[in-house]
Write a structure and sequence with these properties.
The protein is mainly alpha-helical. The chain has two domains: about 180 residues, Ribonucleotide Reductase, subunit A; about 210 residues, Ferritin (Up-down Bundle). Helices cover about 65% and strands about 0% of the residues.
Length: about 475
């Protein structure tokens, strides 16, 4: 249908439509405003922005995908990072990216994208970039790629998007991106200081700079974060063309730790007792040590994020959240050791759990930490809290109160995550998990071969693994 023409001969949709005031109404409005007593701040925002809803959504979907892939990527490295502080921060950052992905996913659903469509989105170019970034030869190179290349590019892109989109019609996107940036600012600042620490400690700065330049060029070759930037040539060769990326399976610790994996029993590992085995003092110290040693839970849940990638976004998100919680538990244990008068590094670090779980199918590894480890904690923690309160041990009562709340949440979330990971029923899952951990504990020397071929009970695994 042809549009009607105005007096200029142009289609009416192209012409300027002038306001048609009715006599006296504008003057009356001015009088009413003059009598109004309040002078509120003036909203200076104006209509107009660079993006249609379609273009806005295209960009947000790409942002969502980058955030989701960064969550996966950091999870895949949690075992392989030796440095305690870096492993701890990585556990936090996995969730920062997961939360960013969730915010963006929610905004996309408001712009007419269905969750299934969002979750099914894939970008082979971004995937190839992520795999190359993960082929870092050291944790220092990983931080350079994740934070100093991709992270800084994302933060810059979000700030530009905030400036370029419509300040009135697209306020929900602006708020979404600003909320995400509140995590990015401290995360990127920490990463810069961490890279500086690696350099000061002997990591070759020139090698990190070469890797930074390599990844920057690779990111530019796919149109940057938005996909709309001018594209350059990709650098050659790529590391993944020679050796495809595979996640690590061995738990790594830095030189400050004295580690053991042949037992879950701290007294056996220490070769002597500090307190009588069943005394309150022994139970108290064991609990605090167990919390510090949940550095292995950062490794477990972070690895699961990678291992179940793209199976279910909600499961990935819950795993990321649990990873963050375990990072806090590790901090709690570390600080409680200090508050109890110990140098945390004088107390040996248990690797039994991660050594078994690292190479294991994720469903069985998850079953062990959820069904045996976390459920096991809940069996005893109520009595521990009551005893701590009776003894006026405010430190232990305080930290265990918060940990109990977290573990209850983890058990609930874990049940659904396991449904995503496996089709096995609960009985079959528990039995196969017990069989696999029996085999692993035999191989570590935690139990003797002559008594081994009887599958261990859940309680025996709880005791021997130490969770």
């Amino acid at each position: 249908m042809k549009l009607p023409e105005d007096n200029s001969g142009q289609p009416a949709s192209k012409a300027t439509i002038t306001a048609q005031s009715i006599a006296g109404q504008r003057e009356a409005a001015a009088e009413r405003r003059a009598k109004y007593p309040y002078r509120f701040p003036v909203d200076r925002r104006q209509l107009g922005g660079k993006f249609t809803v379609k273009e806005n959504s295209r960009r947000l979907l790409r942002y969502f995908y980058f955030e989701r892939r960064l969550m996966h990527a950091l999870g895949s490295w949690t075992l392989a990072i030796p440095e305690y502080e870096v492993k701890l921060e990585t556990g936090r950052h996995i969730f920062w990216h997961a939360d960013a992905a969730r915010f963006l996913r929610e905004r996309l659903t408001e712009q007419e994208y269905r969750p299934k469509v969002i979750d099914a989105f894939r970008d082979p170019e971004i995937d190839r970039f992520i795999d190359e970034m993960l082929s870092a030869e050291s944790p220092a190179e990983l931080l350079v790629g994740v934070h100093q290349v991709v992270g800084k590019a994302i933060a810059t892109t979000y700030r530009h998007h905030i400036d370029d989109t419509d300040q009135v019609t697209d306020v929900p996107t602006i708020r979404c991106l600003k909320r995400i940036l509140t995590d990015y600012e401290p995360m990127l600042a920490w990463a810069d200081e961490a890279v500086d620490a690696y350099i000061a400690g002997g990591v070759e700065e020139a090698k990190l700079s070469t890797w930074r330049w390599h990844l920057t060029r690779l990111l530019a070759s796919i149109g940057g974060i938005t996909g709309a930037d001018p594209r350059g040539d990709a650098p050659t060769p790529l590391r993944i063309d020679t050796k495809p990326y595979e996640r690590g399976t061995v738990p790594m610790r830095d030189v400050r730790f004295d580690t053991f994996k042949h037992t879950g029993d701290y007294d056996a590992a220490d070769a002597q007792k500090r307190f009588d085995k069943d005394s309150y003092e022994a139970v108290r110290l064991r609990f605090i040590r167990t919390q510090r040693d949940e550095v292995d839970a950062i490794e477990a849940f972070g690895t699961f994020v990678w291992d179940i990638r793209f199976k279910d976004f909600d499961a990935e998100y819950d795993l990321a959240r649990v990873t963050w919680d375990e990072a806090r538990h590790t901090e709690i244990g570390h600080r409680a050791m200090l508050a109890s008068g110990y140098d945390p590094y004088e107390l040996r670090n248990r690797l039994t759990s991660s050594t078994c779980r690292g190479p294991m199918d994720p469903a069985f590894a998850m079953a062990e930490i959820n069904l045996f480890g976390e459920v096991g904690v809940l069996k005893t923690i109520n009595d521990l809290i009551d005893t701590a309160a009776a003894r006026n041990d405010e430190l232990l009562r305080h930290i265990s109160d918060y940990i109990r709340a977290d573990e209850r949440t983890h058990v609930r979330k874990g049940a659904r995550i396991l449904e995503v990971m496996t089709d096995l029923d609960a009985k079959a899952l528990e039995l196969r998990t017990r069989e696999l951990f029996t085999e692993c504990l035999v191989s570590l020397g935690a139990i003797k071969k002559e008594i081994d071929m009887k599958t261990l009970t859940r309680e025996e695994i709880e005791h021997l693994v130490g969770e």
